[in-house]
Write a structure and sequence with these properties.
The chain is an alpha+beta fold. The protein has one domain: q2cbj1_9rhob like domain (Jelly Rolls, Sandwich), CATH 2.60.120.620. It has a six-stranded antiparallel beta sheet with strand order 1-9-4-11-2-12. Strands 3-10-5-8 form a four-stranded antiparallel beta sheet, with no helix packed on it. A hairpin with a 6-residue loop joins strand 6 and strand 7. Helix 2 packs antiparallel against helix 5 and helix 5 crosses helix 7. The protein starts with 15 loop residues before the first helix and ends in a 33-residue tail after the last helix. The chain binds 2-oxoglutaric acid. 2-oxoglutaric acid binds next to strand 2, strand 4, strand 10 and strand 11.
Length: 343
């Protein structure tokens, strides 16, 4: 007898209005995608890392005390007033934690991603952790489209950004802003900022369209297309705006995930000039949901951590005078390029 898995009772679905807004405006907020229980392991693992870094800094004489009496939303803000290397060392993709994998693969989130990208679903492992501490000059992120960082070949395909706060995000603590409808114009001109850290769109490129703030509560997510211009400004509170951003794409697009290719999917071969190995070659993709090759779905956090740590650097197209190899992190250090790929 053939048995099939029972449908999950808590399957998540974006409503028709939400789907319409996503496609028309380039963004939508989906509420209550995550429970506190979903987010707590991430908060706990980040807090453990922070605790370890704070104690290490105290032992080295780089911090007067560890501020352990403060909770998740305040401790790093207190530390940062004395020592700003700790917050910078947690920014971006520097932390690779098992709980990140569990969050990226939560069934309700993947349900929404499947609605937008289809059933053969890749998590592009371009994930970022952003502890936006108060009054910092590096944590505001200038106007940009995520596609500006990706391969031009993928410009007109859909890669979904999932922006999720680990505390409520508000205009005061630096929530995201978006330009509704501007995703329809394609990829606008970008240039590297003065520190060669971020890419920037000058506001006159928006031809009069104005940005709107998008406050998002903890547990909810902001979904954006890869061409939705967005930015975030200074955190004017005394707490930390912790957030993560994740990305998903259909497997039909270029991907460096180790999966078999199906008929009609993009494959990369030397003779296929112009097809990149992935939409963002410097970082590794993995399969998170699949009907047609379920055995190739990544199942464990250990695999994710190993993939992330061992990914061999793959060059990306440099269309703005801003290649990853030349980029600097918030501390002014070059991004790590594995030795085998240098020079
Ligand atoms: O979290 C932020 O402040 C910026 C996020 C962002 O630029 C992104 O998700 O692409």
């Amino acid at each position: 007898m053939v048995t099939s898995a029972a449908p999950r009772a808590d399957r998540f679905a974006l409503t028709p209005d939400q789907l319409k807004q996503f496609h028309e405006d380039g963004y939508v907020v989906a509420e209550r995608v995550f429970t506190n229980d979903d987010l707590q392991p991430v908060i706990d693992e980040i807090s453990e890392e922070l605790d370890r870094k704070a104690r290490e800094a105290v032992a080295k004489g780089e911090l007067s005390r560890a501020y352990e009496e403060f909770g998740f939303d305040r401790r790093l803000a207190k530390i940062d007033r004395e020592n700003n290397t700790i917050s910078k060392s947690m920014w971006d993709m520097k932390l690779i934690l098992p709980s990140f994998f569990h969050l990226m693969t939560k069934p309700r989130l993947l349900d929404a991603m499947e609605q937008l990208c289809g059933p053969e679903l890749i998590a592009s492992s371009i994930y970022r952790l952003r502890p936006k501490v108060p009054s910092h000059d590096w944590s505001p992120v200038p106007w940009h489209q995520d596609s500006a960082y990706f391969e031009p070949y993928c410009d007109m395909s859909l890669i979904v950004t999932v922006w999720l706060p680990l505390v409520d995000s508000t205009p005061e603590n630096g929530c995201l802003w978006v330009i509704p409808g501007a995703h329809k114009a394609g990829v606008l001109r970008h240039h590297p900022d003065q520190r060669n850290h971020y890419l920037v769109i000058e506001e006159d490129e928006f031809e009069g369209r104005r940005g709107v703030p998008v406050p998002v509560k903890k547990g909810s997510v902001l979904l954006m297309t890869n061409r939705t211009p967005h930015a975030s400004f200074e955190n004017k509170t005394d707490t930390v705006r912790w957030s993560m951003d994740l990305r998903y794409q259909p497997a039909v697009l270029p991907t460096n995930a180790k999966i078999s290719r199906l008929k009609g999917e993009t494959i990369t071969a030397p003779e296929q000039l112009g097809v990149p190995v992935a939409c963002n070659p410097p970082e590794p993709d993995f399969l998170v949901r699949s009907q047609r090759r379920p055995n190739e779905v990544m199942r464990t956090a250990e695999e994710f951590v190993a993939l992330r740590k061992n990914h061999p650097y793959q060059a990306a197209t440099d269309r703005w005078g801003y290649s990853v190899a030349k980029r600097t992190d918030p501390m002014g250090n070059p991004y790590k390029v594995p030795k085998a790929n240098q020079g």
